[in-house]
Amino acid sequence: MCMTLMEAVNDGEDLLTTVSMPCIEVGTVGGGTVLGPQKSVLEMLGLRGAHPTSPGQNSQGLARLIAAAVMAGELSLLSALAAGHLIRAHMAHNRSQANTEPVATPATPSSEKGPLAKAHLGRNKD
């Protein structure tokens, strides 16, 4: 379970946003970390393997990075909602009933009458 909380601070001048992800499981040692893409990304982030002096520090860093990405997504979504952009985007991209074209049901091979369908079904007598 993850939770994003927002509250006004400094007499309403600032917004404090927190993301809690108490059940996130990450690792920088073993498992899938030996696979090429995972290994490369962990190396690029400087989080591959165990921390030399503080065990668990690399895993904590990876968890913080994931939480920061989640927070960025949450802020983006909430700002789009607040500004009305999300609704306008859905309306512009035919996600409203008024603009949606009826969906055509494709014909099944058994209902087709052409020579390819007959050949496909083993009924081509020509």
What is the CA–CA distance across the termini?
63 Å
Radius of gyration: 26 Å
Counted up, domains total 1
Q: Helix fraction?
A: 40-55%
Structural class: alpha+beta
Q: What amount of the residues lies in strands?
A: 5-15%
Overall spatial form:
flat
Question: Can you tell me about this structure?
Answer:
The protein has 126 residues and is an alpha+beta fold. The relative contact order is 0.09. It starts with a strand and ends in a 6-residue tail after the last helix. It has a two-stranded antiparallel sheet. Residues 116-126 have low confidence and may be disordered. It is built from four helices and two strands.
Ordered list of secondary-structure elements with their pairings:
Blueprint: E1 3-9, E2 14-20, H1 36-45, H2 57-83, H3 85-92, H4 115-120
Antiparallel strand pairs: 1-2
Q: Which keywords apply here?
A:
HMG_CoA_Rdtase_CS, about 40% helix, about 10% strand, HMG_CoA_Rdtase_cat_sf, alpha+beta, 3-hydroxy-3-methylglutaryl-coenzyme A Reductase, Chain A, domain 2, two-stranded antiparallel ribbon, HMG_CoA_Rdtase, about 130 residues, disordered C terminus, 4 helices, hydroxymethylglutaryl-CoA reductase (NADPH) activity
The gist of it:
Its EC number is 1.1.1.34. The protein is an alpha+beta fold.
